[in-house]
Each structure stands twice: as C-alpha cells, then as structure tokens.
TrEMBL record:
Pfam families: LytTR, Response_reg. This is Response regulator transcription factor. Residues 155-259 form the HTH LytTR-type domain. The modification 4-aspartylphosphate is found at residue 57. The keyword Amino-acid biosynthesis does not apply. PROSITE patterns: HTH_LYTTR (PS50930), RESPONSE_REGULATORY (PS50110). PANTHER family: REGULATOR OF RPOS, RESPONSE REGULATOR RECEIVER. Residues 6-119 form the Response regulatory domain. It comes from the Bacteria. It comes from Corallococcus soli. Keywords: DNA-binding, Phosphoprotein. InterPro entries: CheY-like_superfamily (IPR011006), LytTR_DNA-bd_dom (IPR007492), Sig_transdc_resp-reg_receiver (IPR001789), WalR-like (IPR039420). The keyword Metal-binding does not apply.
Length: 261
C-alpha cells in the first residue's frame, strides 16, 4: 500500500475544521498532520510539515487563502483544495492552480470527488513515464534537423496514465511545480515532467518571456501591463489572468515588451 496523503486543514471556524476532520477520517488513505486557524499559522505549518494536500479557506484572519499561496516557495508546493462559503473566488482559485473548489455546504460525495483528484495528482507525479518512450516522444516535439530553429513546437504532458501533445502556440503560460511544470492551455492545466528552467531553454524567446522564477508567459497573450513601484509589472492576459513579474526580471521584461526604462 502507498503511504497516506498528508493533509493540513486551514479554516478559522472550529466547526468547519471538525467536519473536515470527520470526513477525512472516513478515507483510509488520508493522514491529518495539523489544523490552522489563520493564514500566518498556515504558512508556518506548510513550511514545517510539508503536507501533500491543504484544505484551505479563503477568508480568514491574517493573510487570506490566496495570500497563503503567494507566500509559499514555488518549489514542490502542496496540492490545494479551497473550502469556502464564498462562491466569488472560484475563477481566481483555478487561476492559482487549485486542485478543486469546494463550496460550503457540500456533501460527502462531493468531498470524496475532491480527494479522488488529490489521489490522481499524486499518481501522476509519482509514476514516471517509460524512459525510452518519453525520449521518443520528446524527439517528436523538436523541429526536423534541417531547420535552423532549435525550439520545440510541442510539449509532452501527462493526462492520468496517458500522454498528450500540447501545441506550443496554444500555451498561455507555464508555472513551476517543483521538478514539474504546469502548462496552462485555456482553462485546462497539464503537468509536464521538466523544470521551468529546462523548458525556458526549449521555448522561443521571441514568443515566451521568463518574467519570474516561477512562471513563463506567452508574449501574445499579454493584453495589458501595469507597472508597480518596486520594479515589478502586473501582466493582464486575454482571459483576465493576472501574473506579477519578479523584480530581478525587470530588465528582460522591459526589453521583451519594449517598455520605457
């Protein structure tokens, strides 16, 4: 049997935490590693416990749920299921690569469906592709040798036990998930077994911009740019997604977008 999923509960309401604990106890492969009442406790607990899954409220004292996510390092983040009574944050939650969005009140079956997503995610991360097959598939993503460009035109991603080709022209942005990368294509995200730095070297810099240590964005998806005082920029994409660049990437953002220095 595989090790249980280590779960952290974050909710400022005691009764909500108790119900989540009762529901987790009904699943035989979940291990509760802690519970938190506010955002500051959550950030500290995630850093200390390194849970596989966080059941995260949105509105609570201190940093809210999205503030908790922003405070976490991009390396090996836990899976997150938002559990909230507020329906207005669903789009923002999925933009933050949340695994699911549970709207209170929910029933047992809906909760089981969320846990099933967490199990599927771990299977996808823990089950490497056949090495020879992956090498052949990756070779297919490159241009023919007679063409001068060395950049890929397709990426290989995991979809359960299957493999899917993602056309580079369809990609909106890519975000780091430890030794994996989440590739956003429209409303869907796919995991590919590479680091963000490795993919950066494979993507055409005329089409893609590394603007943060945790994300790469496709240039023609950027609709608006909002400068921030510390030297950062907020990118507003065509679909409304907002991504904030890192300060150390200021110069290359300005070059790529031809912004004033």
């Amino acid at each position: 049997m595989s090790a249980p999923l280590r779960v952290l509960i974050v909710d400022d309401e005691r009764l909500a935490r108790e119900r989540l604990k009762d529901l987790l106890a009904e699943a035989g492969d979940m291990q509760l590693v802690g519970e938190c009442r506010n955002g500051n406790e959550a950030i500290a607990a995630i850093d200390a416990e390194r849970p596989d899954l966080v059941l995260l409220d949105v509105q609570m004292p201190g940093p809210d749920g999205f503030g908790v996510l922003r405070a976490l390092p991009p390396e090996s983040p836990p899976a997150v299921i938002f559990v909230t009574a507020h329906r207005d944050f669903a789009v923002q939650a999925f933009e933050a690569n949340a695994l699911d969005y549970l709207l209170k009140p929910f029933d047992r079956e809906r909760f089981r469906q969320s846990l099933a997503r967490a199990r599927d995610r771990r299977k996808a991360l823990a089950s490497p592709l056949d090495t020879e097959l992956l090498a052949r598939l990756e070779a297919l993503t490159r241009r023919p040798p007679h063409e001068p460009e060395r950049y890929v035109t397709r990426l290989v991603a995991r979809v359960g036990w299957r493999m899917r080709f993602l056309q580079v022209e369809d990609i909106d942005y890519l975000t780091a998930e430890g030794n994996y990368v989440s590739v956003q294509v429209g409303k869907q995200s796919h995991l590919t077994r590479e680091t963000l730095s490795a993919l950066e070297a494979k993507l055409d810099p005329k089409q893609f911009l590394r603007a943060h240590r945790s994300f790469i964005v496709r240039l023609d998806r950027i609709e608006e740019v909002e400068p921030l005082p510390p030297g950062e920029y907020v990118f507003v994409l065509r679909d409304g997604t907002r991504l904030t660049s890192g300060r150390s990437y200021r110069a290359q953002v300005q070059r790529a977008l031809e912004l004033p220095t």
